[in-house]
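Quick one, T. Sequence first:
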Amino acid sequence: MMDMDIIIYQPFVNEIKELIQRKQFQAIKMINTETINLYWEIGEEIYRQQREKGWGKSIVQILAKELQKEFPGTQGYSAANLWRMRNFYLTYCNSEKLAPLVREISWSNNIAIMEKCKDDLQREFYIQMTKRFGWTKRVLINFIEAKTYEKYLLNQTNFDLTLPEERRIQAKLAVKDEYTFDFAELSPEYTEHELEVQLVNHIRAFLIEMGGDFSFLGNQYHLVVGSRDLYIDLLLFHRRLRCLVAIELKIGEFEAEYAGKMQLYLTALDEQVKLPDENSSIGIIICKSKDRTYVEYALKRSNVPIGVATYQLCSSLPDNMKEMLPEPEEIVRRLGIFEKD
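Structure tokens:
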């Protein structure tokens, strides 16, 4: 009888559980918003008093000491954190767009973004990504240090044309403009096979470099189409995108024919390997070099999602990366996709 009662009342029980969880989440968000509001007002007041009375940085030392006496055991009122509140206010007080957004992520994430990002466009990108994907502070810092913002703007894909809107941003984050395979032990005149073997032999380092959300399914993955045998260099699975990812390795410059070959791979994967609950497959062609305009033309008419990246064997970013970034107006346009939520 008890089991029968559970079955009868289960929908009602589930509804109440969801209600509790929803209200708990709303309460957490409200507490976070009020905490940020408090820190903003403290920072504003510190700055105002300094400006009006000519006080130096020592005021935060005195204030911290008095607050800790008044609120013993309460964290957040150290001199260092009070100074961060002042800087936080100054960083965003003149930004009508970012001032409301900073209330939607945690204080620790706000501090990481404020201290590690150089301009408002970069800060907006990481605030929006943290908000959308729920990044922890550690994950956020990893993405900042990996220059995800720059690589997001620079990477070359046709995802805007080939993927539904809800998958585009996460898919673009999954493809870097350049990968660093500094763990590979290669001869001076290495072949594509040698490169592939090195990536497989160092599979953990390779997957970390790819971005952390990938799982390895195999190399030289065999497919049969008609009477032809196809072999995909590396086949991965992306957990967040829930899709197969075919990797094609090339030790020379990108050629348009590589995109045609990748299209065949992705069609075969979707027809023969993809499970019913998985999304359509994505291809990443990783070459030693590429002509960016040539890549843009090669991908424009392709009807399957493909990204083209380069790789290097030493861990250094190009000195001219900043020069390669789009103009601020174009960056604003690209970041505008976040405002559609």
